[in-house]
Amino acid sequence: NVYKNREPVPHMKAVYFITPTKKSVDGLIDDFITKSSSRYKAAYVYFTDFCPDNLFNKIKSSCAKSIRRCKEINISFFPYESQVFTLNVPDAFYRCYSPTLEKTKDREAVMQVMAEQIVTLCATLDENPGVRYKSGPSDKASKLAQLVEKNLENYYKTDEKSQIKAKTHSQLIIIDRGFDPVSTVLHELTFQAMVYDLLPIENDTYKQVLLK
């Protein structure tokens, strides 16, 4: 964890698996401020998403000699089950729909983050899908769809001529939560739902204590 104090191990190399944010990059740089005070011998840096040029240049100017590898691996999402994933943005619903939230920029920022995360999922699956959305009852689905399409175009540009990878046969469908609000309050009639109701599940894991 780059946010916490750690014991220096100057004779060992470190692997950094971090998000491309200012806070994470600052934590990385702090570990290699000077050669004499470096926490590790060298660093292998893997970003979960596209690293903006300003952050990349900051690393380059601060600790480039300590970086052995720097790579973007595009997995800015959380696989929850074999065919289910989440973006792990718990306050997204509030920031997108709250009538009391006055900061429009905050709403646009969270939608941009979600669009970038969805694109990393498409990149992992090697898909450039057609993006479709259900219009109404609000404009959230259309705005998110436009952001996803724009980020897909930017990601799949292959050269200076701005040639873009052809669309694949897959379709990405974005639906506003208001399209089906009832599902959020219905109880699922599955064994999985029953297990969560009856057993003490923590972090999707059930631990059984055997008494001898």
TrEMBL record:
Alphabetic keyword roster: Protein transport, Transport
Gene3D superfamilies: 3.40.50.1910, 3.40.50.2060
The family this protein is said to belong to: Belongs to the STXBP/unc-18/SEC1 family.
UniProt KW Transmembrane keyword: no
TM region(s), chain numbering: none
Pfam families: Sec1 (PF00995)
Lineage: Eukaryota, Metazoa, Chordata, Craniata, Vertebrata
Gene Ontology biological process: protein transport; vesicle-mediated transport
Protein name from the UniProt record: Syntaxin binding protein 3
Species per Swiss-Prot/TrEMBL record: Hypotaenidia okinawae
